[in-house]
Amino acid sequence: MKSQDYPLFDQITPEQPKALSVSQLNRGVKLQLEGAYSQVLVRGEISNFKPHSSGHFYFALKDAQSQISAVMFRGMNSKLDFRPKNGMEVLVFGAVTVYEPRGSYQIMVRTMEELGAGALQREFEALKKKLQIEGLFSPENKKTLPLCPFKIALITSPTGAAVKDMIQVLGRRHPAAEIIVIPCLTQGAGAPASLIQGLELLAKLKVDVAIIGRGGGSMEDLWGFNDEALARKIFQCETPIVSAVGHEIDFTISDFVADFRAPTPSAAAEQVTLGVERYRKDLVHFQLSLKNVVLSRRDFAFQKLNHVKRQLVQSHKNAIGTLKEKIFHLVKRFRDPRAELLQKRQRTDELSQRLESGFKNKIKSTRRDLALKQDFLLNRYPKNLKNLKQKLVALAQMMDHLSPLKVLGRGYAFAKIGDSLVTQAGQLKEKDELQVYFQDGHANVRVQDTKIEAASAKLKK
Under DSSP, is residue 412 helix (H, G, I), strand (E, B) or coil? Predict the structure, then answer.
């Protein structure tokens, strides 16, 4: 064999062997690789995952540019708390090994940790279970939302779309409410501490209710609301808290520990004004009912007013008719005063007859009546005053002349049996008891006998 036939031999130095076997090369590579990479930490995506019947896991780790084979034996993968699958991003720890028969190398994985959403989900579930056992999610610990809050705090990012949506909904549904925006970080490592500071301001601001949340995003974006310290702060807060993080399908620890969980920020704004909307509907109903009552009362009042009006008109007609009749009679009397005087004279005659019967009290009453009538006639008929006076004087003299008292004053007396006046001796019987009336009094006497003829003769003499 000549060097010109194999030009590569010319590059070999005298210190090196002329040629290596495949086995020698693979062994050399194995020693070099396994010595240099006995402990490696590699991040990649699982691909071509094949669980073997022996319990070993065979798969590949890849990134955007390349991939490497990997194996995790049964004794190692039995300690995993998750099931690897294609597309899962993981962080593995192990060693690089070389399989000499094929000249291939791979990573022999000792431990594996899930990265991304999967790892976060396991952390989320662990914290959720812990806080649930402690009672932070218990319904009996939830505070009731106020029916009509007038001071509402929004703990969120001041520049996000969520705060604009909440302000718009609150302004439309409850324009009388005071809205206070507490600016906070809602994403990143500093989000939990910022949100906790926002919650601490609630006691100073004395708000009625608070909404904490943000718009939608990935699990990593919403992760700040899964902080344990933030959850405990929400639980300890005296102000009712509504959690509105992400979209309807998103759930965070804040949602579970808050007093109420809303699927979206807009829904949270609707929830805190639910009582206001109910009051508004009730007010519309009351207004309608009040209007109906007022209209009904008005119609009833109009009916009653018309009825009273008709009665009043009829009453006035009757009253006017009565007044007309009275006026007619008065006018008639005024036109013929002699008829009234004649009537008074007849009345005087009647009184005189009654006076003659000995009713003293009637005489006094008649005198008072005559005096009143005299005054009445004097005021109404001044032209006839003189004639009326003369007639009244004549009547008074006549009355005085006919009065029994006048007769008694001349030395006479009269006798009565009970209430009956004795005018004839024939009215008397023996042993009758009489009352004999004199000018200054009366005496009770008893009849012994009666002599009618003798008495008559004496009277004639």
Answer: coil
89-99 and 40-51 beta bridge pairing = antiparallel
In whole angstroms, give the CA distance from residue 273 to residue 149: 7
User: Would you give per-residue pLDDT tens digits along the chain (461 residues)?
Assistant: 444 554 544 555 556 556 888 888 888 888 988 889 999 999 998 889 999 999 999 999 998 788 999 999 999 999 888 889 888 888 999 999 998 888 889 999 999 988 866 667 778 889 999 999 999 999 999 999 998 899 999 999 999 899 999 999 999 999 989 999 999 999 999 999 999 999 999 989 999 999 999 998 888 889 999 999 999 999 999 999 999 998 888 889 999 999 999 999 999 999 999 888 777 776 777 777 787 888 888 888 878 888 787 887 777 777 777 877 777 776 666 655 666 667 777 877 777 776 666 556 666 777 777 777 766 666 665 666 677 777 888 887 777 777 666 777 777 888 888 878 888 887 888 888 888 888 788 888 988 887 765 444 444 44
Run of H or E residues at 139: none
* Cα separation, 297 vs 152, whole angstroms: 42
Q: Are 96 and 60 in contact (CB under 8 A)?
A: no
Distance CA 206, CA 151 (A): 8
- 187: DSSP letter: S
Of 157, 268, 149, residue with least CA distance to 211: 268
Q: Mention every residue, 6+ apart, whose C-beta is less than 8 A from residue 34.
A: 95, 96, 97, 98
Q: Tokens 């009143």 label which residue?
A: 372
Cα distance between residue 119 and residue 132, in whole Å:
20
Distance, in Å, from the CA atom of 197 to the CA atom of 282, rounded to the nearest integer, reads 39
Q: All domains of the chain, ordered by start, with CATH? A: 17-115 (2.40.50.140), 120-272 (3.40.50.2300), 337-407 (no CATH), 413-460 (no CATH)
